[in-house]
Fold this sequence. Notes:
Helices cover 39% and strands 21% of the residues. The protein contains 21 helices and 28 strands.
Amino acid sequence: xxxxxxxxxxxxxxxxxxxxxxxxxxxxxxxxxxxxxxxxxxxxxxxxxxxxxxxxxxxxxxxxxxxxxxxxxxxxxxxxxxxxxxxxxxxxxxxxxxxxxxxxxxxxxxxxxxxxxxxxxxxxxxxxxxxxxxxxxxxxxxxxxxxxxxxxxxxxxxxxxxxxxxxxxxxxxxxxxxxxxxxxxxxxxxxxxxxxxxxxxxxxxxxxxxxxxxxxxxxxxxxxxxxxxxxxxxxxxxxxxxxxxxxxxxxxxxxxxxxxxxxxxxxxxxxxxxxxxxxxxxxxxxxxxxxxxxxxxxxxxxxxxxxxxxxxxxxxxxxxxxxxxxxxxxxxxxxxxxxxxxxxxxxxxxxxxxxxxxxxxxxxxxxxxxxxxxxxxxxxxxxxxxxxxxxxxxxxxxxxxxxxxxxxxxxxxxxxxxxxxxxxxxxxxxxxxxxxxxxxxxxxxxxxxxxxxxxxxxxxxxxxxxxxxxxxxxxxxxxxxxxxxxxxxxxxxxxxxxxxxxxxxxxxxxxxxxxxxxxxxxxxxxxxxxxxxxxxxxxxxxxxxxxxxxxxxxxxxxxxxxxxxxxxxxxxxxxxxxxxxxxxxxxxxxxxxxxxxxxxxxxxxxxxxxxxxxxxxxxxxxxxxxxxxxxxxxxxxxxxxxxxxxxxxxxxxxxx
Length: 656
């Protein structure tokens, strides 16, 4: 095998890993309840055969191949095999509806699609008329596919088998494949990742191989990742977080990716695999804590008392012990007892016992939530990133962890704050351009080559770390001049276990209002314990006692805001609880579960008007998309609840 030149593409790194870590686990997958493992040597052999098979099907250098599905070894191998023949993989969100799927496939000029199963194949077939360049659909799971027309359908296993036979029968073919890997250049487009579309149509972010590898190398060194680490690969394939944290860092460091059996088994698989490197968005940590607190409410009184006692000990001493700071002997002793009785069993139940470093990003995490996990000994850190940066813009070094910042610039990243307050950066992994969109590329880059993030932020004077306030375009003012940062308020509200999602309004208005989604798990458990009968989410959301409970949560947040100089005047004065959960299929959330605030404001304009015309209730009728693609309508009369505001603390003047 030829292996000369710099390691500036992922296929070259794959060959290196097979040589250096050949017998180490590269990827695991739980199938039918059994964990299967492939070593780096086995993965290289499979991917070479797969690449040869794709070439024989007609995939050529520069062609695009879409990958649609969940975290499966064969879909990751599709990315590797495409890169091996210098084609361009284009992951698509597995839960994308037909219109979203057809947009990406058409915009990227996709010629091949690798689909996980019958569901994904059906979606592709339903939009094939809108994808004129589509030639072949290859698929992983064959269940339900027997009676399909296989003129354009091929099993991935058959592609690999065909490539393996061709390589075995023609030594020149193997030599040509190695020569193609050697000819790979760092400037090759390694992948196209489409943005979540928070502010409009998704954009195809083109990332080069050498930039991806340089960025992943920096952060693998930063967190001391090695071939002995294990990560759970459960994040969407199309999201930059999965491609960076699992795929790129995994190949650079040589660690093992473990793919869960399915989305419903992630929690169980997390406990079984025991990752050492872990990432989860704040929503996952919120869910963990919510379920934990629900279980503790049902525990015996003695257990509840012990749990809360040692949590107080953890809050007092946990951070200092985690970072190696001085702690009184009595505090260390109590914390050690707490570790034995509460903290370690708790981390074991959550599947976090072996985690050496954990990250969260995507949204701001509630300070209390962040402190909770760190206090029980989890080395949880925050990062701030974007698809255009190939994820990392900032990250928190060990020993410099603050709940209200996202850390200093990541290794070799340069950050500046524009006069407008916008965060701008240059980074090793920054994107090359948007696919087929020179105008948007020029709009996103400054004349001197910095990327405009669209986020407003500042460097904290005490720590030197970056603080993100909100999307720059979303930061506004109330009529009296008070700063209105909707995302800041929404993240504060979502800390409360009863509140799953919040959308706040107030720019140019007299006061702040909020639309709330309750958390069905937390609130239904409360309803069961309090003998509150309900038949649907809509009934539960409209229950007077649920309104009272949410009102208490918001009032508590208002009291907290009253202590903050800048945000004291932005307390929530009116709120309602929506009759349905905000849903990506209805366009209200992106596929990464970020609120599309402008869309929500337009869709629920009648409710927004009612907030500010003094109405006590409002009628709403909305179209909803069911899981099978059918459309329907939901109608409701929603109550609007008024809240008193907390008086601004003495000495805190309103921000001008």
